[in-house]
Amino acid sequence: MSYRFLSSCVGWPRRYVDDLNEMIADAREITRRTLLKHVDLPELKSLEEALSYASHPMQGMTMAGDWHVSYHKSKLRGFTVYYFRYSSIEYVFVPKEFKWTQH
Fold first, then answer.
1. Radius of gyration of the chain from Cα atoms?
2. Cα dihedral value 73, 77, 78, 84, nearest 10
3. In whole angstroms, what is the distance from residue 40 CA to residue 38 CA?
4. Which of 14, 22, 30, 69 is the most exposed, fewest CB within 10 Å of its CB?
């Protein structure tokens, strides 16, 4: 199953901030390799480019090489989710069937 990018915490809907806080509190750290197995890779690549990461170490800093980035797995409104944290901002990936109205 490929997880799609939903939102970063910066653009999170205000009425669901409690869900975001719960997701962060209940998360466990995972490896980048685990994240890559689950998320939509073109979406992740697009996010990495938007965050000014190089696509190859010969071109500069890659996200994979940045030890400040962490990777996580948690639950959001009953769904398993994956996210990475960059500069204290969470970037959340959800399953395709995720809807805010479900709980």
1. 13
2. -10
3. 7
4. 14
Return phi, psi of residue 66, to 5°.
Answer: -90, 105
Please state whether the predicted TM-score (pTM) of the whole model is above 0.90. yes
The token duo for 79 is: 């769904």
Question: d(Cα 38, Cα 93) in Å, to the nearest integer?
Answer: 9
The answer to whether 76 touches 94, Cβ cutoff 8 Å, is yes
Which amino acid, one-letter code, is at 81? Answer: V
Q: State the DSSP string of 87-100.
A: TTEEEEEE-TT--T
Element (H, E) at 73: strand 70-76
The residues with which 39 forms a beta bridge, in sequence order, are 3
